Amino acid sequence: MLSEHLVTMLPTLVSKHRDPFCAYIYDLKGLHRHVKQLVSKLPINCELFYAVKANPELPILRELAPLVHGFEVASGGEIQHVRANFPETPIIFGGPGKLDEELNLALSAGVETIHVESVYELERIACIARQSGRIVDILLRINLSSLPDGMTSPIAMGGKATQFGIDSLMVAYAVEQALCLPSVRLRGFHFHLLSQQKSASMHLKLIDRLLSLFREWTLEFGLQGPCILNAGGGFGIEYSPPHHHFDWNKFCIGLDELIHQHDAMHHKIRFEAGRYITAACGYYVTEVLDIKKNFGKTFVVCRGGTQHFRTPLAQGHSHPFSVIDIHDWKKPYQRLKASNCDITITGQLCTPKDVLARDAHIQSIKTGDLVAFPYAGAYAWHISPHDFLKHPPPEQIYI
Ligand SMILES: Cc1ncc(COP(=O)(O)O)c(C=O)c1O
Question: Best substitution site from 117, 163, 272 to test ligand 1's pocket, by max atoms within 8 Å of Cβ?
Fold first, then answer.
C-alpha cells in the first residue's frame, strides 16, 4: 500500500521535521507516471482536464499542467490561482452560483468554456460577455432524471433532483435561449452526475446514454461544427482493501467502441477528473501521541486528525493505514505499546467524530510510531476544517 521508497525515507524525514511529525507527503513522480498513463489510453478525440478542487497545491498543478489538456475550475479563486501560475494552460469553468465578478474574471482569463448551470445564469453570462464586447463559448450543464439501472453513488450530483445543471426536460428551451444570444456560442453539453464511480462497465453504460443524448440534441438543434461533450469526472477510488479502483484501461477500450457506435469521432469528448488523478499520490502521515484503553477498546491518539484529513469522515469510512515502526525514542518518559489487537485511530479534536480508522487490526504500535494513510492526495487537506481548535497544520512535503 505504501511505496517502498516512502517507507525507507520516513525515518529520515521524521528526524528532519517537526516533533511530533505530521505531514502530507506527495509522490510527484508517481503522479507523473499515473497521469501520463491515463492520458495515453484515451481515444484520440478525448481530452482529460484536471478538476483543481481535488487538490490545488502548486507542485501538484505544476506536475500536471504539461500532461493534462487543462484545468477545470469552479470559483474565481481557482481561476486566479491557475492563471497567476499557468498563463497558457486551458481553463474550463463550472459550478453553481457563479458571481458576476467571477464571470468577468473568467472572460478576462480567456476560459475555453463556461458550463452553464441555469437559464438565468445563461442570460447573465450573455449580458456580461456583451458588455465586455466578447463572445463566450458555453456548454449547457444538464441534469438527468435518472441514472442507468443499478448505478448508485454516495455522491450523486444528478440522476435526481439536485441544485446542479439544467433539468433535461428544459433542454430545448435552454438551447433556444442560447441560440438567440449573440454573445454566447453554444458548443455542446456538460454532465457531471456522480462521483466515486468504481465500475468501468457501469460508467460505460452512462457514457452510452450521454453519447446518445448528445447525438440526438446536436442533430435536433442543428449545432454547428465539432461540438463538445463534457462527461464530467467521477472515476472512483476504492478506499477499502483490496482497493479495486476504477478500471481505466477497460473504460478507455469501451469508450472507443461507444464513440464509433455513436458516430462521435469528429466531436470532442472531454472529462474533468479530480479524485482519480491525485488521490493515490498523497499520504497523510502522523505520529502516535497516546495509546489508551477505554471500556475494553484500544484507542490510538495521533497528532492532527480530521481537521487535517477529513476524507474518512466525508466518505463515512474507516481509512486504511500502515504503521511505520520508528526505532528512535529520545523522550524522557516511557513508550507505550499495543500488540495484536484492534485499534481505533483518532486525532486531537474534542469531538467523538474525530476518527480516522475504526476497529482495525494491528500487529504492533507504539507511541512515537507513524501512521500513514494512503489515498490522501484528493479531497483531503483542502476539504478539512483547518481552523477548528487551532492546532498547527501538517507540513506539506513533496518527494
Ligand atoms: C462539476 C464537477 N466536475 C468534476 C468534478 C470532479 O469529480 P471527481 O473528483 O469525482 O472526478 C466535480 C467534483 O465535485 C464537479 O463538481
Answer: 272
